[in-house]
Design brief:
Blueprint: E1 3-7, H1 16-29, E2 34-38, H2 44-48, H3 59-64, H4 69-72, E3 74-76, E4 79-82, H5 91-95, H6 104-110, E5 118-122, H7 129-137, E6 140-146, H8 155-168, E7 174-181, H9 188-200, H10 214-218, H11 226-229, H12 234-249
Parallel strand pairs: 1-5, 1-6, 2-4, 2-5, 6-7
Antiparallel strand pairs: 3-4
Helix pairs in contact: 1-12, 6-7
Bound molecules: adenosine-5'-diphosphate and magnesium ion.
Pfam families: AAA_31 (PF13614)
Subunit structure: Dimerizes in the presence of ATP but not ADP; ATP-binding is required for double-stranded (ds)DNA-binding. Interacts with DnaA.
Family: Belongs to the ParA family.
Length: 257
């Protein structure tokens, strides 16, 4: 049965989608069965796998039009993706009237869990109903943190949201880990931020740090994860390392929040 990991940070531009696409492809290269559930209406993970953003059925059709989740999955050579759609932006409002509205995504993904080892959910930059659905569907939360000023800003809100979800909606949820992204070893700032994040999350920050690497920002425009775009780049190497570290951690129990 798949382990479901939500990739969450309510800040935009911190590397959620980049981590989702490239970690998924790296896990697949390790021989694991992986599904990316694109849960951001911007659908950048969808196009990052070379899948058309306007394809249908998509996650919106699954949640609100009763589409079969298995039929919505697009299989690519880099991994499987449950595509998003800009219609998802309206889904939070449309779901308000539903019973068990926080569990809609969970109920859909439950139907796919037997087919995969990992399901990664790429979340939108907010802590509202879509992200709440992702937190209810997830076993764990992976938090990308950009090595920039204000990196820690908002993380206490994120942690308190996770605690509330744990108390009231999903008692099993845990923190998978924190990954430092866009690290630039030439700047003191990156090093200082990395130290600060490690102090804040002792034992929960991956040893693998994702460097700032232009290949990572170019790959999406080719509709490929970085390992297929430039396998020898530092970005590809870093996500391969992160995948190995994550798999290794999962041989042991993960930290509880
Ligand atoms: P989010 O999903 O959190 O909004 P993205 O993954 O879309 O963030 O990243 C924001 C922007 O930064 C994108 O243009 C992406 O290509 C770029 N980017 C992300 N990670 C890196 C990195 N390690 N090196 C260089 N560019 C990156
Ligand atoms: Mg994104």
């Amino acid at each position: 049965m798949a382990k479901t990991i939500a990739i969450v940070n309510q800040k935009g531009g911190v590397g959620k989608t980049t981590t989702c696409v490239n970690l998924a492809a790296a896990l697949k290269n390790l021989g694991l069965r992986v599904l990316v559930c694109d849960f951001d209406p911007q659908a950048n993970s969808t196009s990052g796998f070379g899948v058309d953003k306007t394809s249908s059925p998509n996650i919106y059709d699954v949640l609100l039009n009763g589409a079969d989740p298995a039929k919505a999955v697009a299989a690519t050579v880099y991994g499987d993706v449950l595509p998003s759609s800009k219609a998802l932006a309206g889904a939070s409002i449309e779901m308000i009237g539903l019973e068990r509205r926080e569990y809609q995504l969970r109920e859909s993904l439950d139907q796919l869990k037997a087919r995969y080892d990992y399901i990664l959910i790429d979340c939108p930059p907010s802590l509202e109903l879509l992200t709440l659905n992702a937190l209810c569907a997830a076993d764990t939360v992976l938090v990308p943190v950009q090595c920039e000023y204000y990196a820690l800003e908002g993380l206490s809100d994120l942690l308190s949201t996770i605690r509330i979800v744990k108390r009231s909606l999903n008692p099993e949820i845990a923190l998978e880990g924190v990954v430092l992204t866009m690290y630039d070893g030439r700047t003191n700032l990156s090093m200082q931020v990395a130290e600060e994040v490690k102090r804040h999350f002792p034992g929960q920050v991956y040893a693998t740090v994702i460097p700032r690497n232009v290949r990572l920002s170019e790959a999406p425009s080719h509709g490929k994860p970085v390992c297929a775009y430039d396998a020898l780049s530092r970005g590809a190497e870093a996500y391969d390392q992160l995948a190995r570290e994550l798999v290794e951690h999962n041989r042991y129990a993960v930290t509880r929040v």
